[in-house]
């Protein structure tokens, strides 16, 4: 998959995947092109930019961006030690949707008991 080609030879113990749903926050293809062309060190493959260009702005672009982020994370989930999810505009539900792609790989930590969370 071109979106993750840079991680093909990475060692899982030292790699953290960064997934951004930034291309889907409303500007869609225009924002993906900006990130690719103007942000140093960021490269969005042509295939991904083309996928974003095929959808309109708004809900369709957000849905496609989430699909892309889930696909990218699923493709590397057994090669990385963790992931950094950056949902736009504090859209926590977008981050949770992306993390669903790796639900089989990670087990959430148990919730602390009430007594452990209360200060003396």
Written overview of the protein:
There is one protein chain. With 120 residues, the protein is mainly α. It has one domain (2-106). The protein is built from 5 helices and 2 strands; from the N terminus they run E-H-H-H-E-H-H. The protein has a two-stranded parallel ribbon with strand order 1-2. The chain starts with 15 loop residues before the first strand and ends with a helix. The model is unreliable at 1-16 and 21-26 (pLDDT under 50).
How would the blueprint of this fold be written?
Blueprint (H helix, E strand, L loop, with lengths): L15 E5 L8 H10 L7 H8 L5 H18 L5 E5 L5 H8 L14 H4 L3
Strand-pairing-aware structural class = mainly alpha
Q: What is the overall shape?
A: elongated
Number of helices: 5
Overall average pLDDT: 74
Q: What count of structural domains?
A: 1
Strand order in the largest sheet: 1-2
Which segments are poorly predicted (pLDDT under 50) over 5 or more consecutive residues?
1-16, 21-26
**Strands, total number:** 2
Distance between the ends: 52 Å
Strand content: 5-15%
Question: What is the H-and-E element order?
Answer: EHHHEHH
Biggest beta sheet summary: 2 strands, parallel
Helix content: 40-55%
Rg over CA atoms, rounded to whole Å, is 16 Å
Features:
two-stranded parallel sheet; 2 strands; 120 residues; 5 helices; mainly alpha; disordered N terminus; 8% strand
Task: Summarize, please.
The chain is mostly helical and 120 residues long. Helices cover 40% and strands 8% of the residues. The N and C termini lie far apart (52 Å).
């Amino acid at each position: 998959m071109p979106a993750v080609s840079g991680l093909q030879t990475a060692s899982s113990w030292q790699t953290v995947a960064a997934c951004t749903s930034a291309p889907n926050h409303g500007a869609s293809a225009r924002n993906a092109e900006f990130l690719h062309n103007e942000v140093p060190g960021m490269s969005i493959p042509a295939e991904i930019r083309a996928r974003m260009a095929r959808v309109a702005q708004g809900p369709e672009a957000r849905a496609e961006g989430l699909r892309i982020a889930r696909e990218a994370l699923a493709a590397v989930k057994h090669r990385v030690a963790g992931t950094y999810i950056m949902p736009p505009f504090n859209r926590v539900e977008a981050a949770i949707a992306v993390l669903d792609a790796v639900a089989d790989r990670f087990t959430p930590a148990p919730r602390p008991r009430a007594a452990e969370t209360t200060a003396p």
